[in-house]
Amino acid sequence: MELLDRVRATTPLVHCLTNSVVTGFTANALLAVGATPAMVDLPGEAGPFASVADAILINLGTPHAAHRDAMLEAVQVARTHGTPWVLDPVAVGILPIRTALADQLRGEHPTAIRGNASEIMALAGAGSGGRGTDATHSVADAQHAARTLAHSTGGVVAVSGPTDFITDGDRDIYLGNGHRFLTTITGGGCALGAVTAAFLAVHDTPLLAVTGAHMVYTIAAQRAADKAHGPGSFQVAFLDELATVTGDAIVAEAIIS
Amino acid sequence: MELLDRVRATTPLVHCLTNSVVTGFTANALLAVGATPAMVDLPGEAGPFASVADAILINLGTPHAAHRDAMLEAVQVARTHGTPWVLDPVAVGILPIRTALADQLRGEHPTAIRGNASEIMALAGAGSGGRGTDATHSVADAQHAARTLAHSTGGVVAVSGPTDFITDGDRDIYLGNGHRFLTTITGGGCALGAVTAAFLAVHDTPLLAVTGAHMVYTIAAQRAADKAHGPGSFQVAFLDELATVTGDAIVAEAIIS
Amino acid sequence: MELLDRVRATTPLVHCLTNSVVTGFTANALLAVGATPAMVDLPGEAGPFASVADAILINLGTPHAAHRDAMLEAVQVARTHGTPWVLDPVAVGILPIRTALADQLRGEHPTAIRGNASEIMALAGAGSGGRGTDATHSVADAQHAARTLAHSTGGVVAVSGPTDFITDGDRDIYLGNGHRFLTTITGGGCALGAVTAAFLAVHDTPLLAVTGAHMVYTIAAQRAADKAHGPGSFQVAFLDELATVTGDAIVAEAIIS
């Protein structure tokens, strides 16, 4: 778990273009894990900022017109500079504007895609989406779609659920850590997309970076759950754990195959 | 308090078009009480999403142009589908754009309207608004306006204050629960509007649904206040209580007439 | 520390036009310290609301087109009414749109400017900005630029860092309170700008008001740090401390010269 130490040592600058519900929590999760967040999401600034960022997150939760323009700007710069970027296709399949945008962004070769089972299936053309931010499919349902999507984009695809599934199309990883409390706070998935971007900034093998991010995030969650009495205290304990969990603890507690 | 169990059992999908200050807290309050929030607030998506939502919240706190278009889209769909929706007329009366929008939305027959005394009076044409989000009138001042508004819209009107007043124009309910800490955090009223929408999704009698939502919310607040040392710890304890309070506790602690 | 009591007694109405990441935390910090926040950030309403506000915050963190128009509206009204206002030039120097806007706003004589060393230097024309929201210069580097900026605007300039530097161009104040935890949560600086606006509303000498705000804020932070286990619990304890710290404690713990 040298990756976590690298994030803390190098404080990667993570450029987030994300939805209006989770901006604060996402920034706090990135700060907790040791990265520096910046939410530059307006046209005319998203491109210039992307050129100095270490990684970029594109989250489609509330894609207003100006945000969409800013996302396309940032992604173009990311591709030119070889900057890793994460696509989080929130609620694609069930809503027209984000679905069209996600299809376009899928063609821009995201370094990683993170979503729930229904989102990954919809993005791969294998399903019609979930119920808002809730998946209506299981992670197992989405495995084939995830591998297909990984092959077609050349990136890593991560499906979040009780057991996370991460694949580059050839190699599959199953990660059994986490806690249901993550689904009782808003932004539990969205902030994971941002933390994934931070880890992509510090390692050249996306499959390892994505897996490392998911391990740190989900193990911090289960450690926090031990101290929580409900979703309010869980959120507080989770940020504390993200900031203090050690690489040794990650290695000791990982449930991975 | 079977209503609370129904929310937890059916996880109603609550479509929120709300202000940029309280999106995160509102989503967390809905999740805590057992509902599923979705903040789809852009034109072109708000209408389609409203057609699958179980209830809708329209909160006028920061009504930018695109949000206004999205609100009108969602409300049209709600009316067509018979989906219950809540209007929260934040700071109407003192600001021109939201006041005009609120007047228009009032004509669309909201299932429930929730606001402070000054907002309800302004919306009923009986006052000129408050001081930002602070009421400058008492709940007692607003009773007549609330009844008038309930009659003219055919909906339920709830006036928030030290004692909440809820009316369908004919029947009046006074609810004495709550805690002043709710006024020391942002979104204390806004999230109540969202929780009210969640309860409207699970019961056909709006007066009972609105009352149930206010009881759960204000009793969770007073239970949280017992554990809090200030507004920061109150907010945490409040989300924990919303998630764990039982129907029996609600019945035992309700101050209602 | 009579200033803190005045804020709590008069609950100044602070009109915030701020970035989308920190709206909730900023509102909660203002409520905790005893002020009333209102985030009216749309054109056509920002001007009218500014005319009833006691102080105004202009924060350039996510300056979308409509926000920029609203900021200019509010500042014009502030100048006409003599309402104190604070400029927080987030990430100026490195991004074109906000840098141009900040240059324009600088000419409108902000009552106070608050930023990190790199932002203050960039705004004074003495540097090219930092790294997102991180300063790449020390507070000492920025002292000359801060004095220059204070002279050219006629306002007070505050540079945030391990030791805060506050100047009206002639008198310099160094404030050694605070805690590094403030840099591990998002909005730690942005909310200070808002609290500074609240204090400007209750005292006619901006240098004293700005200093008072910084003392209360940074001493609340160090008291909160004693109770925190990480950034999550720090944020909770910080809001509690802002709400409960006494003037006597501020006087006893201030490290000022």
From TrEMBL, chains A, B, C:
<comment type="function">
    <text>Catalyzes the phosphorylation of the hydroxyl group of 4-methyl-5-beta-hydroxyethylthiazole (THZ).</text>
</comment>
<feature type="binding site">
    <location>
        <position position="39"/>
    </location>
    <ligand>
        <name>substrate</name>
    </ligand>
</feature>
<dbReference type="InterPro" id="IPR029056">
    <property type="entry name" value="Ribokinase-like"/>
</dbReference>
<comment type="pathway">
    <text>Cofactor biosynthesis; thiamine diphosphate biosynthesis; 4-methyl-5-(2-phosphoethyl)-thiazole from 5-(2-hydroxyethyl)-4-methylthiazole: step 1/1.</text>
</comment>
<dbReference type="InterPro" id="IPR000417">
    <property type="entry name" value="Hyethyz_kinase"/>
</dbReference>
<keyword id="KW-0808">Transferase</keyword>
<dbReference type="GO" id="GO:0009229">
    <property type="term" value="P:thiamine diphosphate biosynthetic process"/>
</dbReference>
<dbReference type="GO" id="GO:0004417">
    <property type="term" value="F:hydroxyethylthiazole kinase activity"/>
</dbReference>
<keyword id="KW-0418">Kinase</keyword>
<dbReference type="GO" id="GO:0000287">
    <property type="term" value="F:magnesium ion binding"/>
</dbReference>
<comment type="similarity">
    <text>Belongs to the Thz kinase family.</text>
</comment>
<feature type="binding site">
    <location>
        <position position="187"/>
    </location>
    <ligand>
        <name>substrate</name>
    </ligand>
</feature>
<feature type="binding site">
    <location>
        <position position="114"/>
    </location>
    <ligand>
        <name>ATP</name>
    </ligand>
</feature>
<keyword id="KW-0460">Magnesium</keyword>
<dbReference type="GO" id="GO:0009228">
    <property type="term" value="P:thiamine biosynthetic process"/>
</dbReference>
<keyword id="KW-0067">ATP-binding</keyword>
<feature type="binding site">
    <location>
        <position position="160"/>
    </location>
    <ligand>
        <name>ATP</name>
    </ligand>
</feature>
<keyword id="KW-0479">Metal-binding</keyword>
<dbReference type="GO" id="GO:0005524">
    <property type="term" value="F:ATP binding"/>
</dbReference>
<dbReference type="Pfam" id="PF02110">
    <property type="entry name" value="HK"/>
</dbReference>
<keyword id="KW-0784">Thiamine biosynthesis</keyword>
<keyword id="KW-0547">Nucleotide-binding</keyword>
<protein>
    <recommendedName>
        <fullName>Hydroxyethylthiazole kinase</fullName>
        <ecNumber>2.7.1.50</ecNumber>
    </recommendedName>
</protein>
